[in-house]
Amino acid sequence: MPITVPRPVPAAAPAPISCETAVRRLWDYLDGGLAAPARAEVDAHLAACDECPPHFDFSRRVKVALAAAGGAAPGDDALRARVRGALRVAAAG
Ligand SMILES: [Zn+2]
User: Fold this and answer.
1) Burial level of 10, CB count in 10 A (0-12/13-18/19+)?
2) 36: nearest Cα among 63, 3, 9
3) Which residues have their alpha-adjacent CB atom under 5 A from ion ligand 1?
């Protein structure tokens, strides 16, 4: 499975990114864990894309609901680690 490697971009003009790239950055974006250039790329994509904003909005609501329920659900970290591990395997393969 081919992976898209983010390229360095001039700070003033975010490079266009694919929906796949935007979605891959979704949780880091919502967690505030993205570097400014990557965040600007996602912002620019969300402004131009019809499909991703509802997806991000839904995930943001899930995040808020989890926070309202008293933080991350038990097992959330383990699940996330499993998902990331699987993504790494897919990317490596
Ligand atoms: Zn998109």
Assistant:
1) exposed
2) 9
3) 19, 49, 51-52
State if pTM tops 0.85.
no
| Distance of CA 42 from the midpoint of ligand 1 (Å) | 9
Distance between first and last Cα of the chain: 7
CA of 52 to the centre of ligand 1 (A): 4
> What's the gap in Å between 30 CA and the centre of ligand 1?
16
List, for residues 46-87, the tens digit of each pLDDT value: 999 999 999 999 999 999 998 898 855 556 677 778 878 887
